[in-house]
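Now for one record:
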Amino acid sequence: MKSKFIISMALFVLVGIQGTVEAQEKKTEEKVKPVSIAHIKISGSLDEGAAPAEPLFSSMQETLKGKIDRIKKAAADTNIKGLILEIDGLEVGWGKLDELTEALSNFKKSGKKVFTYLESGEMKDYLIALSSNKVILPESGWLMLTGLRAEVTFYKEMLEKIGAQADFLRVGDFKSAVEPYTRTTMSESSRKQMESVLDDFYEKSVVARIQQERVSKKWDANQIRKMIDNGPYTARKSEELGLVDMVGYFPSVTEAFKKELKVEEINLVRNYGKDKVDEVDLSNPFAILKLFAAPKIVSNSKPKIAVIYASGTINTGKSEIGLLGGESCGATSMIQAIRQAENDKSVKAIVLRVDSPGGSALASDLIWAELMRCKKPVVASMSDVAASGGYYICMAASKIFAEPGTITGSIGVFGGKINMGGTYAKLGITSEVITRGANANLFSSTNSFSKSEREAMTRLIEDCYDQFITKALKGREKSGKKLDRKTLESLAGGRVWTGRQAKENGLVDELGTMQDAVKMASKLGGLPADQEPELLLLPKSKSFLDSLLDPKAGLSISSTLDIIGASSLRGELKGIDSFLRMRNDPMWLMLPFNVKVK
């Protein structure tokens, strides 16, 4: 009996020891389990709009929304303990920069850290990086903290060399969209408004931002301006001044995170949240078609917010790819999208997302009219640019959200043509015209306006401007802003404003992101405030095969410029591209598309 007791006790001790060992082993396993850190790379233009339908192209051409959604996903993912942001060559405007900044700020509110690695320290790369907890530059890198410049390209002398002449009329002293074709330098009024915009960006988006994000350095505005005047800087000098936190190559970023989180191992989830393309057996010639297969879309009756993108130059007809790449905003495509949202019973409200410098007066008005007919609430969200015709279509919204750095306003009209008579003569082309009616030659491409034609054109433009002012007043009244005609006219005349200035002047209602606009649309549509709504993105992007079969797609010279090493010309020629899109329209609501503040 005694021996049985001793054996039982021995077994009990052994089981206890084994249990203790297993518990310690499990504890050790948990201790050495690597911490997951998300990696997201940001570069390029980050276009607006729905992503390409095919998985292959949606992963290659990521949109701004797609990038922000990945940052939001990382913030909510309990398995992710931090974010490494790799920034290399951002080509976005100031509105998108604000949107990305807000997304990173919201990520940090989750309690997780953001470390940013700058491959090349361009100005906008650095301004985004300031949202992170630590900024790292490679030893051979630099920080291009050199200030801002506004650049306008002029075509007058080029037109003269080929025998052409621009003949334009405008309403508004600040309506500088015609100047690239009629002048070789900025007018005094144009320079005045560009200096106002540049000052706002410089003081608020650059100086104040550096001061706010590097608050521990206790720099005043003058110290920051002096540092900018002495830029650019090497990586070491940037670290010495306190503009960046660390000099090192990409692996040193993960090492820094290990120290921050006090762990021995990190699992870096590269390209976190990015759509993956299934592997395809390329030995099968038909298998590659899977890459271009659009995903199956399952419709449902869940309450939704429709986000309708108005991106690019506004023109009549369908949206199309321009000569220099980039999609235009076609009135026909926009109207179809608005009607689709209106007829979809699951859609409770619409967010109009605008990234457009304007364009055709007729096309802008057609889009505005369709939005006004829509019985569902409409909220406008402005991206980099929502000016002239882009501002016009926002007048149908109940509320307008702009980013602080959005370029907007430009309430004005111009119209005219390019007289190609001299060009044709140089080529040995002559023409003979028989007319009936004093203004029959109004849109002749071989003559400038006669006195009678100029008077007739002026009446058209002034009437269009009156419509613009009247609709802007009604739009502001609809959103609860009380602007009298005299006040609005003092803000109009083609004058351009930043989002901050537009908010102060009552031209927009709120400063906020597209997400803020979606929340407002949800409220107006009666959706629950504590739930993120499902989004219907419109217009649907063209499929690869649709683009391939588009007869106009073959006209694009964008890729040719890249091949011959002249890609920088793309930006300079965009003004001509915009003009060609609208050459058959008599009146334009257009911001100079080739104006750049960088």
